[in-house]
Amino acid sequence: MQLETMSNDPLHGLTLEMIVTHLVESYGWDELGQQIRINCFTSNPSIQSSLKFLRKTPWARTKVEDFYKYSLRKNKLK
Fold first, then answer.
1. Is pTM, for the whole model, over 0.90?
2. Per-residue pLDDT reduced to its tens digit, 9-19
3. Is 16-74 a CATH 2.160.10.10 domain?
């Protein structure tokens, strides 16, 4: 019998699109742009343009993922 192991990673099973959408629903573009200083959140923001940038830019994706984990810990997500 094989035991299934649970992942301790809060991002396990989440896509980048799910993370960005959840952050936008919880904070809105203005607040998200203030919390994470990335132009894709402040200059004509959209989910698709943000995803395109974040997928090509590892440091920005890390910032978004870290902010998502922080928001989970502080119960700031809707």
1. no
2. 889 999 999 99
3. no
